[in-house]
Every structure is written in C-alpha cells, then in structure tokens.
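Saturday, quiet lab. Running sequence design on the structure tokens for the scaffold JK sent over.
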C-alpha cells in the first residue's frame, strides 16, 4: 500500500506506551480464544461483550501501569494507522457530503494487553472492535500476527488497512442509524434469526471497507500489487466457517455472527467494484 508521505490524522490515541507489564486483563489460554472467536473484527459486538469482560475483571488485581517510550517499530505502525485513518476521514467525509450529511470523525485507540473503553474493559483477546458508546475503534496491532500464525492470513499492510476500514464501517453504521435499527430488529427473534441480522451488519461493514478502497484508489492511487489479495486473505481467515472448522472441527451455520469467508470476500469486492454505498443492503439480500 502506498501510504508514506501523505496526510496523517490527529485522531489516533496511542496508549501502547502505557505498559501493564505484559499481562492481559483477561488472561490468555482457552478463555482468550473464546473471546477472540466471539468478537473477531468485533464491530458492535464490542458493546455486547464488554459487560462480560467487566464481570470477569471484578475482583482481579490490576497490574501497575508503567510509562515508556514507543519503539521505532511502534512509531512506524502509528504513522501507518494515522495515514489510513486520514484516508478514511477523507473518503467518508466526501461520501457523506455527496449525500447531504455530515461525517463525524471517530478516534482510533492503539493499545497493548488491555484497555478501558466506553463499552467497558477489554483485552487484546477481544480482537479489533468499535465501541459505539464513545465512537472509537480499539486495536492491539499484535492481533495481525495472530491472524497470520493462527488463522492463516497472508498479512501485510493492506490487511491492516482493511480491518481498520471494516471497523470504521461500523462507525458509519452508527452515524446512519443502521446499528440501532438492527438491535431493534433482533428483539423477540430466535437466536438463529438474531445471528442472521448480526451477519448482515458485519457484511455491510465489509462492503463499506470495499467502498472506501474504491474511493481511496481513485483519489490517492494507494493500491500496489497484492494488496487486494491481502485484504481477501484476511476476510477469508475470519469467516465464521473458517474459524469454526479450524477451532472445533465442524461448522454450525446457525451460530454464524460475521458471515462465511466467501460472503465476507464477496461483499468487500462488491463495495470495491461498485463504489456505490447504496448497493450495500446486506439485510435485504440475506433474508
């Protein structure tokens, strides 16, 4: 991805210098894997999982926080995230303006181990997620190494950009009222039907990530050879079917909350090829 030498956003909070001694709030192991699978590319689910995290944290001693300087690698990562966020700000401000609306810019918070959010405490095991309560995206960048080593994604800078764009897609859904409508639609539904609505929300965020890529390529010529493959590899790795097959050896479609690998790749590419926000009604197509 061509990102160097371009505008960087001021809306990134880097809390990685606030070290907690390498310990997570929740701890790792099986519990961490369960939380990761529940919340990978967490979206609005960050809000639902947060109360669980809070209960688990109660009564546990918290490690002392230590301040340290960021490493050269961390500063490089920060510059990349700031550039990708600036690109999202530029694209979504343009799209909202074209539709006679104002875009409210979210913040991205980078952290290590654990973090306090408007949706409660969370650990790195939660995966990247968007908290609608404070309208911030939270990311431990170590997640992307897990994505490669545990879930078989190719990795690369554009895989990270895709994840950021997906989470910003959830912010767009919050601003447009889609997330609130989805939660209303889930009321009184069976678990399987409620899950289907969650899938639609997640796939729409993938679609918005594709729309962002389309606009950003036109405006800034960001794509290099292999970038789309990196995004599609990440989308494939976090499909519900791929995760379930890898972690439990069988697939339970009615428990899907984020969509299959093929669905996630399809909606990302539909957004990228069309560049038309009006073609992303995943709710209608999944009925």
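Result came back. Writing it out in full:
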């Amino acid at each position: 991805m061509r990102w160097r030498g371009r505008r960087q956003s001021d809306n990134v909070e880097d809390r990685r210098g606030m070290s907690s001694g390498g310990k997570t709030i929740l701890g790792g192991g099986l519990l961490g894997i369960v939380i990761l699978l529940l919340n990978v590319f967490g979206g609005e689910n960050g809000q639902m999982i947060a109360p669980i995290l809070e209960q688990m944290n109660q009564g546990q001693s918290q490690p002392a926080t230590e301040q340290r300087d960021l490493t050269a690698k961390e500063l490089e990562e920060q510059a990349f995230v700031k550039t990708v966020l600036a690109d999202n700000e530029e694209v979504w401000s343009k799209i909202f303006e074209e539709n006679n609306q104002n875009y409210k810019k979210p913040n991205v918070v980078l952290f290590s181990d654990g973090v306090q959010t408007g949706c409660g405490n969370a650990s790195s095991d939660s995966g990247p997620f968007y908290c609608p309560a404070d309208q911030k995206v939270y990311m431990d960048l170590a997640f992307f190494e897990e994505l490669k080593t545990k879930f078989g994604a190719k990795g690369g800078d554009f895989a990270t950009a895709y994840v950021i764009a997906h989470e910003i897609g959830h912010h767009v859904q919050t601003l447009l009222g889609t997330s609130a409508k989805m939660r209303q639609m889930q009321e009184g539904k069976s678990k399987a039907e409620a899950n289907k609505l969650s899938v639609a929300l997640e796939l729409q965020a993938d679609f918005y990530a594709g729309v962002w890529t389309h606009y950003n390529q036109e405006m800034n010529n960001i794509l290099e050879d292999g970038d789309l493959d990196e995004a599609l590899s990440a989308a494939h790795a976090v499909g519900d079917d791929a995760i379930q097959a890898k972690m439990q050896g069988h697939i339970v479609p009615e428990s899907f909350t984020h969509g299959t690998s093929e669905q996630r790749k399809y909606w990302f590419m539909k957004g990228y090829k069309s560049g038309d926000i009006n073609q992303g009604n995943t709710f209608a197509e999944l009925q």
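Notes for JK: Confidence is low (pLDDT under 50) at residues 20-38, 46-61. The CA atoms of residues 47 and 57 lie 16 Å apart. Ask whether to fix the surface positions before the next round.
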